[in-house]
Amino acid sequence: MFKKNDSLESNSIIGEGSYFKGEFTLQGTLRVDGCYEGDKLEVDNLIIGQTGKIKSNIKSVYTVVEGIVIGDIEASSRVMLMPTSRVLGEIRTPELIIQNGVVLEGSCIIAPDPTTNPKETILALYNASGENTDSKTVS
User: Is 120 helix (H, G, I), strand (E, B) or coil?
Assistant: First the structure.
């Protein structure tokens, strides 16, 4: 999928047929073609191959999913869900790309700063506009 000189060249790999359990923190790029289970997976860039399975909450800058993720994904730049991806969990990111064929169950929070509460921001903007004649708010 990626060329050798690509900026997402993996400097760590959990290979197909491998199983890793624990807590993983990495500066750089991790490619998962095997299975990872843990409380936390924190990495700059994450590539989950078609045979990759992750059962953990993920915190990254950039994540590409081709395999299975059970857990929340928080990416400060982008999440890309390829056609073979299967995700169960919440996604928080400024940019989400979903290709045809993806299976996703969970909520998505898309905002420039995914750590903020977009609902409060949107309601505040709506109520500040002065154009609403009805005092009811959405809950």
Answer: helix
- At residue 86, the pLDDT reads 98
Instruction: Tell me which residue of 135, 65, 132, 131 sits closest to 104, measured CA to CA.
Output: 65
Q: Residue 48 forms beta bridges with which residues?
A: 32, 65
Q: Using alpha carbons, select from 11, 16, 114 the residue that is nearest to residue 72.
A: 114
Helix, strand, coil % (nearest 5) of the chain? 10, 50, 40
Closest CA to 12 of 46, 41, 39, 40: 46
What is the secondary structure of 10-29 as a DSSP string?
Answer: -SEEE-TT-EEEEEEEEEEE
Q: What is the DSSP letter of 130?
A: S
H helices of the chain, where? 118-128
- pTM comes to 0.82
DSSP secondary-structure letter at 22?
Answer: E
pLDDT tens digits, residue range 54-91?
Answer: 999 999 999 999 999 999 999 999 999 999 999 999 99
Q: How large is the C-alpha radius of gyration of the chain?
A: 18
Phi, psi of 124 (to 5 degrees): -65, -40
